[in-house]
Amino acid sequence: MLPATPEPASGEPLKESPSESTIRLTIPGRPFHILGRITASMVVVGVGIGLLCLLTWLWIESAILPEQEGTEALIVEGYTPLVFLIVTALATPVVSSIVGLFEGRTLSTRTEAIVVGVGCLIGATLLVLVSGLFIGVSGAGSGGGPGPADLVALAGLSGLVSAIVGAVTSAVGGT
């Protein structure tokens, strides 16, 4: 049972004494702003990479594949989407390092460097997933390329590496 708190006779609310501690449950908006800016930027990059991969595939279909026969055509159809995915996955730490350096210039605390890392994790994962949607349209169709689980695994790995790169470069850029 809690002890009763005395009510002041004047009707004024009780004021905390300096010795009592309180817990603030509010989260400032700056970390959410940083997360949103990084995630949106990386999704836009993902759309750009995916669109470029799709347009490149259309060019390959019209310029390269008509000259290929049999096994050569199957190799081009099978491996081109994989190359697109590899290039996309390799681009995520590069994009994260650029984001980290730019965001690091505006950071006021080391905790915000962790926020940049989390933003790069989310953004890089979405970058690979969004690009993968475009890349899935290219290639050998339903018979070739990685499945959805493989794409999610690659996106997660790219996100983890990008989180580390983004956090470290933002901490370095902020000092």
Structure write-up:
There is one protein chain. With 175 residues, this protein is mainly alpha-helical. The protein has one domain (30-173). 70% of the residues lie in helices and 0% in strands. The chain has helices at residues 30-63, 70-104, 110-137, 148-173. The N and C termini lie far apart (51 Å).
Helix content: over 70%
Major β-sheet, in short?
Answer: none
Number of helices: 4
The fraction of residues assigned to DSSP E strands is under 5%
* Average predicted local confidence, pLDDT: 84
Count of distinct strands: 0
Radius of gyration, in Å, reads 25 Å
Question: What's the multimeric state?
Answer: single chain
Task: Kindly summarize this structure in a few lines.
Keywords: Membrane, Transmembrane, Transmembrane helix. The chain has 175 residues and is an all-alpha fold.
Keywords:
single chain; mainly alpha; elongated
Topology:
Layout: H1 30-63, H2 70-104, H3 110-137, H4 148-173
